[in-house]
């Protein structure tokens, strides 16, 4: 009461005082309580501990005007202006409601006095007046840790290894001390395992232990980082992270025979220490960023790493598009920025600031590509040539005079002209009758050109009879002609513009004779032959073979048929020419003309009609059209010839605008997406509820990076991928840098500084050492320039990394999970390392690199497209069985039971970490599987080759597996079992032992 | 028990093993009853499950869901004009069922002539007559029915159950899969994967017809040194070496877990050959399962094996009817009249025998049998007399412990095209099964890449109408 009075008095006194001083104070006039002087102190004293700047119980706070009035999570207003009686704030602080008294019973904050309550009431009834200056505002909520800008933290102790500085600081804070450095035998096994995924040989261990050079450890590290085995080890981690496999998954789990080129690309990228931003750009858009570096094309295998649901592709195309792009979005955002963007497919992300629209913007990035086999010219010089000649052919087709008459191309044209003999004169055949057997309608136009019309039968035979004003006949000529009325401009009637001429036959009818005389051809030549459908097949008497011109459709072609011997024609003789087209599928000639000659067939050269005509015109008299015709023809020949000599294209399973769909084995048809598909935001993720169209973009959660891409040509899908790559690789993208250093840390310590390497969102882990993580991210970006090898050097050179794994009870009592790293962690060999260690031990490891994957199964036909795989019959002594596990064929839906039991992940999903399990089935597998038994036997054989006496053989076997000699007792036991059950049994036990399976 | 306490522990465990750490209780690496993850949220009615799966999409309107309206409208073109997503061909005319239906039992449940033997058990079954799924495509459909997701990589129901409840015996695997001898189902091993759960929860695939049904139970004869009589000595030495290693590397329960795993392996070597040998059953019983008839032999053997396995403590057994592919399964696109009856005949007697046998052994008190498929089929013809895929409505049934026998829940429309009343989604179905096992489906979660994953995704309501 006294306090209230005092305050009250003070207020009045103050007003009086100010009034006396001649200052006009409007608030004072109506005598309402003053917020700053009277109300806020009450709130601060009694309410702020639960509803203030620090805590906001039930979302309510009295330090911010808006919230104080509007109320908290209940949604009911707490203060109703001019109505203290109805204001919940007054009800609660006055205690009228026993259920709800504020501050509550037991609170350390004092209850309000009656006077204070009255004051509060007056204040509300009079306004309440709450000056703007004291309105407070919601803290611009500090971003989640992973989204905070990257700022290089100061090093805790300058003189020390930066990592150790951060780690020791946290250890000290938690009353922990680091473990001593591990012994050299342990260290060398550890760095071999971590850096190259193999076990050192006993000789390498001995050499390292005996090396007095203070740089001994660094030398080993350098050797390992420069070993090609390094890339093989670290590629596996990346392939797990992005769920790469050698088959589709789903119902039609078809093998991807060319996926391996991406695996090899990743191995090379790690071995060459490609800076991380460049690694990002290569995988998302190497074709856009580095079009000249065609050897890197397999980088696009990244986009094709995931699953492919062929069944849905075939029967539910809309569903397929959204789900397949979802797979790409999930993979990309998870792998590079540890973000679960896919959680925003059906609604705004529940935990992270990712609106649904961002998710669909990411889908739009991938809306112009399809997974499949991508053909590419590997060698850059050949690729340049390929592009050059392809572009020349395009210019020919456009009759682009600038190109056709260019100085660069003139020598090619002149060279061709120089080689042309005197053109042959061809006499057009003037048809008398023209018949078809299956109902095509042949229409004759001027120039004796026939056009086939009407319904398109499956097969047909055209017969044309004609008189010819020649006395001697040496050859026939067939021109098949491009024409706008035909599919793909012909010259064939098949949907793809092709035709197939099964056989051509010629009969000569003399005047009055009713029986024609069949005339044989000696040989035929054509200006273009489809692979396996050459012109000679029109003369082979086999109606199943034929001449075709695919893919050179949309252009005219010519074929010349030389007679067995020249034939003298009597006056009024007529020719009957039969064109059999019996392949089926409407492979019929759409437009053609026939002609004949009596000139020496030796001079017969195939040239299109218009070229012939141009050539017959004297050089000086040729008009521009004729010059273009000649140049175009000559350059097309030169280009085709050059293209023929280029090496074969290579293939990688990837995603691109044009791919061969892998829908069977061998792969099927070419598919092209001509422009990116429209992506709609789907209401609740429902394909049947498309909403607004969304353009390409990334996430809006990084204020400094624009989240929607302003692209000069939005139809150019390559620009979309490139823009996303730029967004990801941007130095301002804090997620990218934190993500990769954390992944590398994870593989060195068995756990990331943030223990959810692919999820840095609110549902993910919180970093144990946030400053260290940030320091590493900035250092990796700015100092190491994105070099992973530099990062490895930094990590493995730290004392933290080199600690022993020794258990200490007192430390475990404080930090049982070893989050603060008071020791190094022990790793069980992952499935791949177990295999590779085992083969290295038995001496069977085959270090051949690259190439198609090794299949550890017998592959047979399955009921449908998915083959049947039998892993149990594989013979481990066959060539290639000793290749490293990275070269193993990973069939997504039919896992290798041996690898699975050692926790090789299900690559239907992304796998940023490997699990650990121990089960009776795992024990049975390790003890009885053919692989282990085979190598137990080979390990025994090896030691027998190397040593004569059993004890030495046992010593050698333990040196190879445990990197040490057995103790006397161990030796006794191992000798004993070797005597009773063979040395191979002792080796089998060693390969099952925990000392072999765990890396300290 | 307080799930809020149990789950974080479990989650830590997962994170811990993911990170390769050692501070985990041994009991958590081996999930026996005594150390099961989930202390039941409520009393369990069911301990063991046999899941029968009809690969390809069993036709409801030709088996359990008669539609007189189809008889009336037969031959009329009344279906959608545009091919819906996931249909494999254009929509044909309305097609009646070629099979006569009759009512059976006290419940008067309609069953067609293709299932004469199961028809005798309808009063013991609870039917879900209006099941729906989200796809018309086999791969995603088979995933949905097994894992609750249309996508690969998610743990299937057997793995979740193994993870949640652990095993009932050390002598046999917890989750056993018996695929059709003709091949694997759609998605290959994807329908019995443990997904992101630890590998020990994956289904153990048993080739029932093989002389070595359990892979790697013993060494192959190829390896002369690895004769069975050497196993005890080898395993004993391994144990000594591992124990002395563990003594020098204290505080890491994974080392103990690996030691224990070999003890359990030895137990399994002793028990499994007996458990997998159906010839130990009397001839009359084998005959009742149809083992002496070519038509029923394969499925019958696997049903009998399922009985023996649950009797010996296996928690979850899947028995598949039909491989993936165009023939030999329930995907009857070409001709319902000729394709469905042989499939039905191959399972009908074995299933009826399974139910009778479980009952006579008293296993029905703790075992649930579920008859499942990935989706139904269209009321419209395809290719004249076949039916296309239809996720709109299909039928499953439950039998055994905890269910309300003789009920039929839900109704499809007059054509059997869409579920219209009391629809049951795959998530509802999974929620109901977990409920019978004493598990609240919303509380059985695993944190995976930022999401607390459940078998039921973010959906699922227990179908109380089919529970006792």
Fold blueprint:
The complex is a heterodimer of chains A (1000) and B (468).
Chain A: H1 2-20, H2 26-30, H3 35-46, H4 48-51, H5 65-70, H6 88-94, H7 114-125, H8 162-173, H9 184-196, H10 202-210, H11 216-225, H12 228-241, H13 260-271, H14 276-289, H15 310-315, H16 317-337, H17 356-365, E1 370-376, H18 380-397, H19 401-404, H20 410-419, E2 427-428, E3 430-436, E4 441-444, E5 450-453, E6 460-467, E7 472-480, E8 503-509, E9 517-519, E10 521-526, E11 557-568, E12 574-581, E13 591-597, H21 609-616, H22 624-645, E14 650-656, E15 658-660, E16 670-672, E17 680-682, E18 690-693, H23 717-729, H24 734-749, H25 770-783, H26 788-796, H27 799-802, H28 809-814, E19 827-828, H29 831-842, E20 858-860, E21 868-870, H30 897-901, H31 920-928, H32 930-946, H33 950-962, H34 968-981, H35 983-992, H36 994-997, E22 998-999
Antiparallel strand pairs in A: 1-14, 2-13, 3-6, 4-5, 5-13, 6-12, 7-11, 7-13, 8-9, 8-12, 10-11, 15-16, 17-18, 19-22, 20-21
Chain B: H1 3-19, H2 26-29, E1 48-54, H3 68-73, E2 101-104, E3 109-112, E4 125-132, H4 138-147, H5 157-165, E5 175-178, E6 204-205, H6 231-248, H7 253-275, H8 283-288, H9 297-311, E7 316-321, H10 336-360, E8 367-373, E9 376-382, E10 386-390, E11 394-400, E12 408-409, E13 411-412, E14 419-421, E15 424-425, H11 426-436, E16 446-448, E17 451-453
Parallel strand pairs in B: 1-7, 1-8, 4-12, 4-15, 5-6, 5-7
Antiparallel strand pairs in B: 2-3, 4-11, 8-11, 9-10, 13-14, 16-17
Helix pairs in contact in B: 6-7, 9-10
What does this structure look like?
The complex is a heterodimer of chains A (1000) and B (468). Chain A is an alpha+beta fold. Helices cover 39% and strands 11% of the residues of chain A. Chain A is built from 36 helices and 22 strands. Chain B is α/β, with parallel strands linked by helices and 468 residues long. Chain B has 11 helices and 17 strands. Chain B starts with a helix and ends in a 15-residue tail after the last strand. Classes of the chains: A alpha+beta (1000), B alpha/beta (468). The interface between A and B is large, with 108 and 102 residues.
